[in-house]
Amino acid sequence: MATFSGRCLLLRLLAFRQAQRPLPAVLLQVLRDPRVLKVGVGCVEDSKRLAHDHGLALVSTVDLRSLALRQRCAVLSNGLSLKSLAGDVLGVSLDKTPALRCSDWEAESLSQQQMTYAARDAQVSVALFLHLLGLYSEPWLPDETRSAYSTLAARCQGLVDVAFRGRCETEEGEHRHRSRRPTPESPEAGDQQVPDPRRNKRKPLGVGYSARKSPLYDNCFLHAPDGQPLCTCDKKKAKWYLDKGIGELVSEEPFIVRLLFEPSGRPDSQKDYYLTAKENLCVVCGKADSYIRKNIVPHEYRRHFPTEMKDHNSHDILLLCTGCHAASNVYDGFLKQQLAEEHGAPQGCEEAARTLEDQERRRVRSAARALLSAGDAVPAARRCELLATVAAFFDPGGQEGEGRVVSEVTAQMLETAANLETRICNENYVPHGLKVVRAFAERGLQGLIELERRWRQHFLSSMQPGFLPPLWSVSHNHEKYLRKYGEDLVVSLS
């Protein structure tokens, strides 16, 4: 990691994991701070690997390849790798020879050449970022009204936390609109940017949804036999009562069906959330042309709640436009990370994964791939080390010897080793959501109510919705739960 001043930090994550030592708190804070931009080539892929291997959250990244294409750099001639960008934009040559790239990065001590290699990559990435934005030739420090993050992020709008997808999407990326809303940790507007899928024909990174084709709320009403309003529902459900002959039509507009039987329950008050008509629009920005259902309490937590708290929870399903939905998902990631740290329920790291990485098999696979990709370019001594690693895997009891290793490691063995499966089953796996819910459930119903309230308040704080349905509340149903179940509710979690 390097800063714009040139100061560089080389921190070996593997050493911390092998020694079972916690990573420095300040490092974790910088990686997950949305107000600190991280720039490089392949940042989104790096963030996935950090989350998978080390449980680290990396946010607010910018891929230099996207930025170079956005700026339409005329000097780009050799490609979009870090080495090519450094040569074309900065006139700097980076040493990317196989001998150095394939050297032993897991050695107890790295050579000066290795450390320089790592540092140069980080320093050149920062220099490229500033050059591509023209910040070496003009003043860029923020004025009194704007933060440094806002100043920089505004110049790469549409590229923050967006995976690089190639030259063909340059124009699309250039015009991609970015929603800008305050984060829970940083309430200033504009401190976090997330993609607006309405400007992108492809689904943005991590988004697996599409806008609804029909309205969510039909705002039909069901009435009791004496005319008391019971609830709102969709037209399909209201017509079902008519088709079965157990209801009669009272009105077409609004569509009201009076039941011909006594319902199993009636609302406690006529000031009930489920009796209010709801508009088909984004509850955050008010746009009505494209919207998606949003689970305010994410399903990965709600699915582990007791049945009494899972039934009739449409209160926590709201409509958001595609842009606000994507923004909300980013902010949800911040709270998930907080919950992970508070309750020892990491997301995506080895302790929490269904499978674990077998370090020995991974070392063999890396050795085989280095031999296949670099071939004779690997220094002789290092080549023998890699061959010995592969040979020992196929014949653990064999005698070591340089001649034997070279002669017995066949091309077929290298191909097999290069495609090894390195994951093993983790019998102690507990999903992040279940572990968090269990922690809150230790205090019974009150604990689960606190978790539900926390997610609702998080949505209000992070998204600041301006068009919530009437009577929507952070404390919805909580008094009812306590009155009906009290501490007698048996919290049984799956």
Automatic annotation (TrEMBL):
Keywords noted in UniProt: Exonuclease, Hydrolase, Nuclease, Signal
Residues covered by the 3'-5' exonuclease domain: 27-132
Gene name per UniProt: exd2
Extent of the signal sequence: 1-19
Stated name of the protein: 3'-5' exonuclease domain-containing protein
The keyword Nuclease is assigned to this record: yes
MF (Gene Ontology): 3'-5' exonuclease activity; nucleic acid binding
KW Nuclease (keyword) present: yes
Taxonomic classification: Eukaryota, Metazoa, Chordata, Craniata, Vertebrata
One example of a Gene Ontology biological process annotation: nucleobase-containing compound metabolic process
Transmembrane segments: none
UniProt-annotated stretches for the region Disordered: 171-210
GO cellular component terms listed in the entry, alphabetical order: cytoplasm; nucleus
